[in-house]
Amino acid sequence: MPLASLRRQTLLDLLRSQGGMSTKELARRLGVSEATVRRDLAALAQQGLLLREHGGALLPEAEPPYALKLEQHRPVKEAIARRARELVPDGATVILDSGTTALALARLLAGRPLRAVALDLPIAQALAQGETEVLLPGGRVRNGFYSLVGSWTEELLGQVRADLFFLGADAFGPEGVTNHTFEEAAVKRKAMTVSARTVLLADRSKWGKRAPAFVAPLEALSLVITDLEDPALKARVPVEVVRGTL
Predict the structure, then answer these.
(1) Which domains does the chain possess?
(2) Distance of alpha carbon 124 from its chain centroid, rounded?
(3) pLDDT tens digits, residue range 157-198?
């Protein structure tokens, strides 16, 4: 295989593992100039194998980098988190899914007298204050995204009995909740089975989209907290609408 083809295949492999990368970081990892990387990105984009972004690239349907997720739609996520906080009584056992909307909720719950199972590392760190007891189910950490996945995570979750599971999603639509990775989807389903209620926290930017890994139908949810006003959603599951600005 020609050198350029090998390099471009390695570039695609890096994007698959990280979800998205900057031109500068790709150049460093590949040991070539940024100009070479830009030429490779242009060639691969022309073939439909990746999406070029300002200063970098993503795979089509790839999960956005964590740092980008953290900044996206922050006011809406905080509004959703404030409403979700009202559902949690002192003394409750709750599971918080991985993701940045659940992180906003974790910051509001931190220090309260409750037991919280955290499905990613930033959430555990945010919760570990005051009277809050934080449990980590172990497993493998997804590099760059910090969520816990794998058989260890699922096995230890099986020993939990939670009052509430606050579920995150990469996408949701009429067919249900979906996610970018099958490993995370499996962990989400396990958390649902050990929780009395599952509450989806999702802003309207995720509605009507579909990621590769199916999590659950809308009917399996107890409630959706969102900024989305859509009769099609309300016909399928209880919805509480918050006000926010995307």
Answers:
(1) 3-61 (1.10.10.10), 69-241 (3.40.50.1360)
(2) 15
(3) 999 999 999 999 999 999 999 988 888 999 999 999 999 999
